[in-house]
Amino acid sequence: MATKAEIIAKAKAAILDFDEEAAEEVANESLKAGIDPAELIQDGFTAAMTEVGDQFEAGTLFLPHVIAASEAMSAGVKVLTPALEKMGSESQNRGTVLICTIEGDIHTIGKDIVATMLKIAGFKVVDLGRDIAIKDIVSKTSEVKPNVVATSALMTTTMVNQMQVEEQLKEAGLRAGVKTMVGGAPVTQDWANKIGADIYAENAADAVTKLKALF
Prior knowledge:
The structure is a single chain. By secondary structure, this protein is α/β, with parallel strands linked by helices. It has two domains: 4-87, Methionine synthase domain (Methyltransferase, Methionine Synthase (B12-binding Domains), Chain A, domain 1, Orthogonal Bundle), CATH 1.10.1240; 96-214, Rossmann fold (3-Layer(aba) Sandwich), CATH 3.40.50.280. It is 62% helix and 13% strand. It is built from nine helices and five strands. The chain has a five-stranded parallel beta sheet with strand order 2-1-3-4-5, with helices on both faces. Strand 1 (96-102), helix 5 (109-120) and strand 2 form a beta-alpha-beta unit. Helix 1 packs parallel to helix 3 (37-58). The protein is globular and about 55 Å long. The N and C termini lie far apart (41 Å).
């Protein structure tokens, strides 16, 4: 049987090879080996996605690569989700987070990592996906009644839609009942302050820390 370090290395390689099948296989292998699924995600899948993100920033990988890596990670996480949910239900439920990448933006890498890390931390996560219309965020907020509405914007041109979320939640009479969290490469604390968002998350670990402190 492979060691824990070997299995985690395989998980990393699956993402860097954009291989959904390999990601599923290593996820199943890790469950059989009794490896903590949170550890496999953080040290294997997420570590690889961070590398993919760095290469994308450097211009050595392109958007199709990022999407392919993200899909491979999703395939692996899907296998681990039942075990993660069992862990989450055994730990306290910290609250519900509605999360998405904002309208006009097809990037998912950061949002996917944040969603996964929040699940591991015991939050219930409702992930709407990418390029989500503001009206759909508002209607889903009304339906799900989350504690937090979190949006990711990866381009300066789509950041303005985070301001629209604030305004349309207010118009719908929903803003007072939720906290809002914003993140993404061009997003800053100043921007969060300017639009009236409650929380700015610099990265996935920061998002978890700030939401844990909130609840």
